[in-house]
Design brief:
By secondary structure, this protein is of the alpha/beta class. Helices cover about 30% and strands about 20% of the residues. Strand 3 and strand 4 form a beta hairpin.
Length: about 220
């Protein structure tokens, strides 16, 4: 997708301040330090539009980015960040889940998981909530350049084992036009997935294709 215009419209944790707009929204979710900012910068073709940091927990608000005056990319606070108070983490979780479960313009969620590690309990809980809310989402395994091609089969297998009964990735781990359909209680919903690298650009076109289908 060619980016003709890009601007930050709102930065807030107050649902009353969310944009009142007819545009659809695509949200980007994931654990702290999973690579959300790097992914957004790669997608948008801007080096420092979304601030990156080696320290987790940098994104602490919900950020609404207007793309081509057509739709919003929404950068959500990273979850699982331990170096904050329990009260702060609880507040973030409440706002995050309320947005994901009730936001009317939300057309899809880009759920990030670090390809180097198994899904965390927070990742599993997030995916369970997305499935329960019947939201359309795609799994994006970040930092794909840091694992071997052979390890990708292990990554998919671990995901399917950890999320058994909730969600599963099919044999072809890439985005496609298929919808998420309930495949029975034994396997959960089938979700598309891609491997992504902010360094090499792998997965960028597939992810844009998935987003474009929903806007």
């Amino acid at each position: 997708m060619k980016i003709l215009s890009l601007r930050t419209v709102r930065t807030t944790l107050d649902a009353a301040q969310f944009p009142n707009s007819p545009w659809v929204e695509i949200a980007v979710a994931g654990r702290s330090n999973v690579g959300k900012s790097s992914l957004l910068n790669m997608l948008l073709g801007r080096k420092d539009f979304a601030r990156t940091s080696k320290d987790p927990g940098k994104t602490r608000t919900i950020n609404f980015y207007a793309v081509n005056d057509r739709f919003f990319l929404v950068d959500l606070p990273g979850y699982g960040f331990a170096r904050t108070s329990a009260e702060q983490r609880e507040n973030w979780a409440k706002v995050l889940y309320t947005y994901l479960e009730t936001r009317q313009p939300l057309a899809g969620i880009v759920q990030l998981i670090d390809a180097r590690h198994e899904p965390s309990r927070e990742d599993e809980r997030m995916i369970e909530r997305l499935v329960e809310a019947r939201r359309q989402f795609i799994i994006v395994f970040t930092k794909a350049d840091k694992i071997s091609k052979a390890d990708r089969f292990r990554v998919i297998r671990q995901f399917n084992e950890n999320l058994a009964g909730t969600a599963r990735i099919g044999r072809s781990a890439k985005a496609d036009a298929g919808s998420q359909a309930d495949s029975g209680s034994s396997g959960g919903v089938e979700v598309p997935a891609i491997f992504f690298s902010s360094k090499t650009g792998e997965g960028k076109e597939d992810l844009w294709r998935w987003i474009a289908e929903r806007i």
